[in-house]
Amino acid sequence: MENYKVKDINLAEQGRKKIDWAESRMPVLMYLRDKYSKTQPLKGYKIAGCLHVTKETAVLVETLRAAGAEVAWSGCNPLSTQDDVAAALAANGISIYAWHGMNVEEFYWAIDKTLEIDPNLTLDDGADLIFTIHNKHPEKAKNVIGGTEETTTGVHRLRAMAKAGKLLYPVFAVNDAETKWDFDNVYGTGQSTIDGILRATNVLIAGKTVVVAGYGHCGKGVAMRAKGLGANVIVTEVKPTAALKATLEGFRVMPMDEAAKLGDIFVTATGVKDIIVKRHFESMKDGAIVCNTGHYDCEINIPDLESLAVDKKEIRPNNEMYTLKDGRRIFLLAKGRLVNLASAEGHPSEVMDMSFANQFLAMIRLTETGKDLENNVYLLPEEQDQEIARIKLETMGFKIDELTPEQIEYINDYSQGT
């Protein structure tokens, strides 16, 4: 029997070309693959993964297998799976259950299929896999040494679960590694979100007023890239320090109720529901473009938009035009899903190189320490961050200074005055 379900296995050759390209852009992960394929520290371990099926993810999956792991995979977003990449993984013997456009039932069916291997490690983006184990298959948690979580939203929810005493195994917050969120979230999200908007609309960004909801790492990246293309950027926030940072970095800051009247393009990047709701749609300009680059599609209240519309049609791929009763048109991109993955290809390979190096090394770390950890959410050690950054710099042809023994002694000598 086939141990996969994808859209079309005949797309495998096309997907393999994409993976080959990603490998040429991901030298850190390829270095780790070469190193650990010799020692195979993951031999005998079974990993269930739930993460966007992109060419970069494929490089991670095949690196995990090269290190000895048995892997079963599903996509963590119904619209982010690249069908040719999924086919390439299936053709290479990976148990994968993912295709673009899955409905909710199919999405969770795929996660259930990955759990049939009885994993002892889990790798997640958004924590849907972890939640499925906890809520539907708690008996399987007994065999899980530990897991990892890729994104901010998932980490927040897992910390809440741990605080409530409900987490059944330890999890490394890969998202919170410096070489993840200070690079992937900022530069990856910034560039790929603009890419997704352009593919779905082909609008001129220069001169537009772009409203970015949320000024965390992801929102900061989007605001930075929009500004670089000539947009006038407005930031909406609930956190005073984040709003202050946005202000001092040159952006206008105001509540969404005010920004809704001014924006040409709206991007939500908060991980929180109901950021854009009925009253905001009611005050938007004719032609406003609305999209989401947070994890879930609930940031934009789509039922509210539909309640105001008298007509809805797809005007371009991943671009739906809602005509309101007064004739105004609002364009929703990627059905409110992650615009950078649903209408583009996600983050560039170069930045995912570091994120997925963290995932890979976290898996190995769990095999070494997971059984000794309590059921909590843990940060990865700083030395791992610095090692990944060092390797990345070397592959880019850069060298940096090193502290002398005397400088190290000075740093640690609390007896010296000014």
UniProtKB/TrEMBL annotation:
Protein name (database record): Adenosylhomocysteinase
Details of cofactor binding: Binds 1 NAD(+) per subunit.
Any one GO cellular component localisation term in the record: cytosol
Originating species: Thermotomaculum hydrothermale
Gene Ontology biological-process entries: L-homocysteine biosynthetic process; one-carbon metabolic process; S-adenosylmethionine cycle
Similarity section: Belongs to the adenosylhomocysteinase family.
HAMAP family: AdoHcyase
Biological function: May play a key role in the regulation of the intracellular concentration of adenosylhomocysteine.
Localization, UniProt: Cytoplasm
Primary location class: cytoplasm
Enzyme class: hydrolase
The keyword Nucleotidyltransferase is annotated on this UniProt entry: no
Assigned keywords, A-Z: Cytoplasm, Hydrolase, NAD, One-carbon metabolism
Catalysis: reaction(s): S-adenosyl-L-homocysteine + H2O = L-homocysteine + adenosine
Gene name linked to the record: ahcY
Residues involved in NAD(+) binding: 151-153, 185, 214-221, 237, 340, 347
S-adenosyl-L-homocysteine hydrolase NAD binding domain location: 185-346
One family name in Pfam for this protein: AdoHcyase_NAD
UniProt binding sites for substrate: T54, D125, E150, K180, D184
Entries under NCBIfam families matching the protein: ahcY, PRK05476.2-3
Listed pathway(s): Amino-acid biosynthesis; L-homocysteine biosynthesis; L-homocysteine from S-adenosyl-L-homocysteine: step 1/1
